[in-house]
Amino acid sequence: MNETLEKKNIMMKLNGVRQTSQRRATLQYLSSTNSHPTANKIYNILKKDFPKLSLATVYQNLKTLTKNNVIKEISVKKYAKSI
């Protein structure tokens, strides 16, 4: 486990965030990538190891991790083409 991931796990413990296997897997995936994946991307990656995982669970885990300052949310605006 890398140092950053360990610090994030400690932060979750200090904030009283329950560390479910799905939440740990979400955090581990986020720590292992340099991209900024969408919830759908995370869901598709983790679904292989957690067949009963729902997209709603991924969103809830991301919300919990963001609320407890373990991760940061970024928003990307999509621009429509004008015809």
Describe the structure.
- The chain is an all-alpha fold and 83 residues long.
- It has a single domain (3-67), classed as Winged helix-like DNA-binding domain superfamily/Winged helix DNA-binding domain (Arc Repressor Mutant, subunit A, Orthogonal Bundle).
- 54% of the residues lie in helices and 0% in strands.
- The chain contains 4 helices and no strands.
- It has helices at residues 3-14, 21-32, 39-46, 55-67.
- The chain is globular, with a radius of gyration of 14 Å.
- The model has no long low-confidence stretch (mean pLDDT 86).
Assembly state (oligomeric):
single chain
Proportion of β residues? under 5%
How many domains? The number is 1
CA-atom Rg in angstroms? 14 Å
The amount of helix comes to 40-55%
Low-confidence stretches: none
Q: Major sheet: size, sense and barrel closure?
A: none
Report the top-level CATH class. Answer: Mainly Alpha
Summarize the entry for a quick read.
Helices cover 54% and strands 0% of the residues.
